[in-house]
């Protein structure tokens, strides 16, 4: 029978480390909070779900050894990080050029089905095009594996799933706090414009950071 999860002596430190890491500011957090500030709580939750799907894909790639191949390929790593940086710049541009009227309408009603799918895909793409996530999964998950060689893949997937569940819970808490704060200042168009510039600048800075990330 497969040992899906490690012993408690490894599992508890893994959960605590995962929560601490998910609270660390990064591209994913900046993107989710930007969507929440710009389009409301529902958009933030969908974006966070997309990011969780992307992160689970990275965990799966780590379990199957695909991330290890990426880590040894300078060309693949370069292409991926440039694509990720360009995508973040595109998202930042979209936030800057969004109309305040559109934002207010999106905050007042839940996203439509096609918009929901788009938000999930955007979140997943943001995460998937960040090579740092794949390298992180490759380095982090194996530290907590306690299994026979034939069980390593399944345990890596289980740990990846647990990490992403914890991450989504953290995102939900942050999204609700951000939405509450945004609701208090939504009447000021000047402040909303300022917030769009701040979030776009943060995403642009993250894009530049990704470009200069070394393999």
The helix tally amounts to 10
Give the C-alpha Rg.
18 Å
Report how far apart the termini are: 37 Å
Quantity of strands, as a count: 0
Largest sheet: none
Low-confidence stretches at least 5 residues in length (pLDDT < 50)? 101-105
Q: Assign the structural class, choosing from mainly alpha, mainly beta, alpha/beta, alpha+beta, or little secondary structure.
A: mainly alpha
Mean pLDDT: 79
Order of helices and strands: HHHHHHHHHH
Number of domains: 1
| DSSP strand content | under 5%
Sum up the overall morphology in one term: globular
> What portion of residues is helical?
over 70%
Give the assembly state of these chains. single chain
Structural account:
The model is unreliable at 101-105 (pLDDT under 50). This protein has 215 residues and is mostly helical. Helix 2 (27-39) packs parallel to helix 9. The protein is globular and about 55 Å long. The chain starts with 7 loop residues before the first helix and ends with a helix. It has helices at residues 8-22, 27-39, 41-64, 66-72, 74-97, 100-108, 113-128, 131-140, 152-185, 189-211. It has one domain (26-211). It is 81% helix and 0% strand.
Blueprint of the fold:
Blueprint: H1 8-22, H2 27-39, H3 41-64, H4 66-72, H5 74-97, H6 100-108, H7 113-128, H8 131-140, H9 152-185, H10 189-211
Helix pairs in contact: 1-9, 2-3, 2-9, 2-10, 3-7, 3-8, 3-9, 4-8, 5-10
């Amino acid at each position: 029978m497969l040992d899906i999860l490690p012993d408690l002596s490894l599992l508890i430190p893994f959960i605590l480390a995962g929560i601490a890491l998910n609270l660390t500011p990064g591209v994913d957090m900046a993107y989710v909070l930007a969507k929440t500030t710009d389009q409301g709580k529902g958009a933030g939750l969908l974006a966070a779900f997309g990011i969780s799907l992307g992160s689970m894909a990275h965990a799966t790639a780590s379990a199957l050894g695909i991330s290890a191949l990426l880590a040894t390929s300078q060309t693949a790593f370069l292409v991926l990080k440039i694509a990720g940086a360009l995508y973040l710049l595109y998202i930042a541009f979209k936030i800057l050029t969004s109309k305040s009227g559109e934002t207010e309408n999106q905050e007042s009603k839940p996203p439509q089905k096609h918009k929901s799918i788009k938000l999930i895909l955007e979140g997943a793409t943001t995460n998937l095009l960040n090579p740092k996530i794949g390298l992180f999964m490759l380095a982090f998950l194996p530290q907590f594996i306690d299994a026979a060689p034939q069980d390593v893949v399944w345990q890596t997937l289980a740990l990846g799933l647990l990490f992403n569940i914890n991450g989504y819970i953290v995102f939900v808490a942050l999204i609700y706090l951000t939405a509450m704060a945004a609701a208090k200042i939504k009447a000021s168009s000047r402040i909303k414009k300022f917030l769009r510039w701040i979030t776009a600048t943060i995403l642009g800075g993250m894009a530049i950071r990704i470009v200069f990330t070394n393999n």
